[in-house]
Every structure is written in C-alpha cells, then in structure tokens.
Design goal:
The protein is mainly β. It contains 3 helices and 30 strands. The chain has helices at 52-65, 90-94, 140-156, and strands at residues 8-11, 40-43, 69-71, 100-109, 112-121, 126-135, 165-172, 179-186, 193-194, 201-207, 213-220, 223-230, 236-238, 245-251, 257-264, 267-274, 280-282, 290-295, 301-306, 313-318, 325-326, 333-339, 346-352, 355-361, 369-374, 376-382, 388-394, 401-406, 412-414, 420-426. The strands form 7 sheets. Strands 1-6-5-4-2-3 form a 6-stranded mixed β-sheet, with helices on one face. Strands 9-8-7-30 form a 4-stranded antiparallel β-sheet, with no helix packed on it. A 4-stranded antiparallel β-sheet has the order 10-11-12-13, with no helix packed on it. InterPro entries: 6-blade_b-propeller_TolB-like, Tol-Pal_TolB, TolB_N, WD40. Belongs to the TolB family. Part of the Tol-Pal system, which plays a role in outer membrane invagination during cell division and is important for maintaining outer membrane integrity.
Length: 431
Amino acid sequence: MRLKTLALAIAATLLSTTALPPAAHAQVEVDINRGEVQPMPIAIPAFGGQQGAEIAQVITGNLERSGLFAPIPQSAYIEQGMDVNVQPRFPDWKSINAQALVNGQVTVEGGRLTVNFRLWDVYSEQQLLGLQFTSTPDNWRRVAHKISDAVYERLTGEKGYFDTRVVFVSESGGKLNRRKQLAIMDQDGANPSYLTDGSYIVMTPRFSSTSQEITYMALRPDGSSIYLFNLETGRRETLGNFPGMVFAPRFSPDGGRVAFSVERAGNSDIYVMDLRSRSSSRLTTDASIETSPSFSPDGSQIVYNSDRGGTAQLYVMGASGGGSRRISFGEGRYTTPVWSPTGEYIAFTKQTGGEFHIGIMRPDGSDERILTSSYLDEGPTWAPNGRVLMFSRETPGAGPRLWTVDVTGRILRPAPYPGSGTDPAWSPLLN
C-alpha cells in the first residue's frame, strides 16, 4: 500500500499588526516538572472560515489528551465571531477562567489552505504566539496538529508530539484464528489504514528516524523474516535470510543499521545489519536468550533483555557488542526495553506479582518507577518528546487495546483508536 507524502509549507514568522501588542515572555505556562500538574484552562473557539471548526476540534482533542490542558466547553464562551486580527475582549475570557486563548482564521483560495492563529495570555493580555501555516486543503488535519505542537511547546517549554503517526499490529477475530495486520494511523487515531492483508502474522513494527520506513517481523508457514517497508514508495523487501527464527528488529537512530535477534535451537542472540552493505555481525554469544535490542539516541549503546542470570533482566552493551552490564535488579521479569528519544529513561515491561507493568528507569538502572499495572500491559513505545508512552493493555475477556501514559504515571488513558491493537511504535515528528 502506498501512502501519500503530505507536503506542508510553513511560514514561521510571528503574525502581528499595529493594533496588537508585541509578543512577550509568557506569564502563563504549564510546569510539567512538578509532581502534580493542574491542567491549564484554555479556550479554543472555532476558527473562522472553511473547516475552522474542525481544526479547532482537533487542537482541542490533542491538548486535552495530553492531560496538561483543560479545554473550556464552547457553550461557556461569551465572545463570539472573533477576528484573528482584532484583540480579544479579555474580560469575557477572564470571566470564564480561561488562562490561555487560541483563535484563528482559515482561508482557501486557488487550491491553497492558509491558517493564521494566535495564542494569547488572557490575564496579561499579551500575544504569546502568532503563526501562519499554508498547505493544500486536504492537509487540514496536519495543520491542526502543527498548531497543537506550537501551542504545547510555547506553554510547556517542551516539543510537542501531535504531528506524528503510530504503526501497530491490528488484531481481529478469535484467539484461535487471530488476524494480525500491520496498520498505521495518526497519533489521535485518525486515518487508520492497513499495510498488510492479514494472510500472515506480523509483529514488532518499528519506525526509522525519517518516519518513511518501517521494519517488522513476518511469521509465515515457511519461516520468519524481517521486512523493510517504505511508506513513500510502497516497496517491501526482506532484510536477509538467516538460519533460524528472526525477530524484534529496530532501527539505529541514523537509520543505517537494524538490530534484531536470531533464535537457533532454543538460544537467541542479537545481531546488527548495516543496511548499505547488508553485512551483519553477531553482538552476543551467551548460551541464553538475548532479545529486544534498542539503540541509545546517540547510537553508541544498545539495551536488551537476557535471561543469562536466571530470569529476564535488562542489560546495556556497546553498539558493536561487548562491555555488557546489567542495569535491572528487581524481582520479576524485565522485557521489551526501549530507550527514550531524549536518552533520559529506558522504558520496559515488567512481570511480577501476577501482573504486568509498564515502567521506566535511568540508563544506569537507578530511579526505577512503575507507571501502570494490569492483567497484561506490554510493549511500550515513546512519543518523540520522551514525555508520553503508548503500550497495549489486555483485560480478561476483551481484546488488547492501545493506551497512553505519561512519565509521571498520572495521565493514563485509552488511545483514541477504537479497535484492538498491540505492538505500537510511535514515529518521530513528521517533516
């Protein structure tokens, strides 16, 4: 299946007119480093013009799901029919306790979509941000995500994660005839589509750093293979033929290598392949199960899990192999480690006490924190800002669903995709 590249031109110059005060240092902000964050009341009225209401709705949904913002219902708004080039009636917004206000205007002329928006600090009555986005009309959802990212960054000080996609395994049917298809969607569950037809089982899809390539494992009756799939061209190719079962592929940060595991006679080891030369090398040689490799953001190290100590624990080694050191020492089994894009944490699945948990720890193994607990939580993946994780959760009698949790464990909620899914992998921010 071929996915269309979304061309999006962006004008990043601050919008201003002589009738408006200049941008100023934010008097209003969300301190995301506090232990308890009170969501900021924010007003996002429908933008003027064609699809203005839909764009405001997407922005509202994105910011609300982050758990850091509390959008005020539009039924409470006093000022109506706002002009993006006219200063808001701030007393009206203060009276409903809006601390921030986002308003905008959409125009479509000559097949070109233009969206102007402004972000206001209601109590200081100052403009914090004003940007113009241009694109084709069918890209209006991506424009909404771009605006969401800009507002999130201006008010939290961290990059957003809304203009992204998630690749995952869509599951349907009963347990004895489960159909597993490679699927992709926007991070808010919109535009879901299938990349495989379900005639064979797929597992562990992962994005490259360019967001244009996916690697995944396919389990066919005649064996397993690792595939590379180009979203732009639709080209699909196998990574190579290996004696034994291959699984758990993951790109290096520069996209030039793929690390994976090969299982032979009950023993599995980690390999890495250079995608240009297609030469591969073996990184581990222990008589135990080593799997789930994940590169550090600078590509110099790999975290993986191994049962060489008697139970599955997390280890870190150099990206060329060697120098392995154990970093997890808790009770239970630690699996599916994945390094955060910021390098600050390693997320993992932990099984102990009859439950599964999603947790994080520092790369040296310190500061372990359990974020979720349930009948079956597994397979974490990081949003590109390293603030939010997506994972799959299964409850007895129900199919697996995708969930999200932030690094504090406080903001836990189902992902907006309505179907069953496992093995999510979050893309980097789209270009």
